[in-house]
Amino acid sequence: MKVLVATEKAFAPVAINQIRTVTEAAGYELVLLENYKDVSDLLVAVSDVDAMIVRSDLITSAVFDAAKNLKIVVRAGAGYDNIDLPSCTAHNVVAMNTPGQNANAVAELAFSLMLYQARGGFVGKSGTELRRKSIGIHAFGNVGKHVAEIAKGFGMDIYTFDPFVIEKDIKKYGVKVCNTTEELYSKCQYISLHMPANDKTKKSIGYHLLKRMPKGAVLVNTARKEIIDEDDLLKIFEERSDFQYLSDVAPDCIALFEERYKGRFIFTSKKMGAQTEEANMYACLAAARQIFDYFKTGNEKYKVNK
Ligand code: 3PG
Q1: Using a 6 Å cutoff on CB, does residue 77 contact ligand 1?
Q2: Is 56's C-beta closer than 6 angstroms to any atom of ligand 1?
Q3: How far apart are CA 288 and CA 96, in angstroms?
């Protein structure tokens, strides 16, 4: 049986060495398609594989049509908005994710962005500190919890809003609970976003929330660009010269930011949240193990399609 690792943005070599070892030890053949530039290469590579591991690669119905033997696709990461789930189900393919494996890497990126911006890009001018500043963690899942732990180390005043996590589980992290998003945004100079992109969250971060943030507001987005209402973001940037936006990958309106708001934003050029050797190893090994287990025992614990 063949397991394909198809990644437009490759895993670290150390992760690939490990996945090769475990895949061969489990008796499967590993097929690699790394750094591909054209979807036609993906369509050829999937034609005879039984399982597939991907990252943010777009897995559309064309991919499922081409993958005649495919039984399982695992997104080595948390967000699976890149997989066409109805088409996956229609093709009798199981889709899974590997929640939590990238979480610390993403949380560390959020702090890298905050620190770099707070120090004004390290060009000699006095910056500011994170200590005693307020941070609002919007959604308290795996990444949000890591952000809370790091924020505690920095001596920040930490708040969250997440209707899906019970108060007791939040409070043990030393985090204060807000009852509404409006309350969270009103209280916090820094807001760090950690929700998935889905029909409910897309464009949900807009003017009605951003306008509430205190002076020196910094919005940090290591989630997905789609959750931001970009028209509203531009509106608040126009109205408030103190407002800053730090994002893992640029918004669609990047040209306007570059033209008008130099110094008030940081956008990574490639999605960097999960791009550490450690996260690559954890996520791709978890994906491989979930595949072996699925074939051996039928375990569907991390299945995300119906
Ligand atoms: C995730 O959802 O886990 C991250 O966004 C990682 O995305 P990547 O694998 O494309 O870096």
Answers
A1: yes
A2: yes
A3: 11
Residue 61 sits at φ, ψ, to 5 deg, of: -65, -30
Judged on CB neighbours under 10 Å (0-12, 13-18, 19+), 209 is buried
What spacing in Å lies between the alpha carbon of 281 and ligand 1's midpoint?
13
The pTM of this model reads 0.96
Which of 36, 54, 55 to mutate to test ligand 1, by most ligand atoms within 8 A of the CB atom? 55
- Structural domains of the chain, count: 2
Q: How far is the CA of 55 from the centre of ligand 1 (A)?
A: 6
How many Cα atoms within 13 Å fall on the side-chain side of residue 54? 25
Does any domain span residue 306?
Answer: no
Task: Summarize pLDDT for 263-286 with one digit per residue, the tens.
Answer: 999 999 999 999 999 999 999 999
271 Cα nearest atom in ligand 1: 11
pLDDT digits (tens, 9 = 90+) for 288-303: 999 999 999 999 999 9
| Residues 74 and 153 occupy one common structural domain | no
Q: Do 34 and 157 sit in the same domain of this protein?
A: no
Ligand 1 pocket member 211 (CB < 6 A): no
CA dist 32 and 7 (Å) reads 8
CATH number at residue 208: 3.40.50.720
Residue type for 302, please? Y
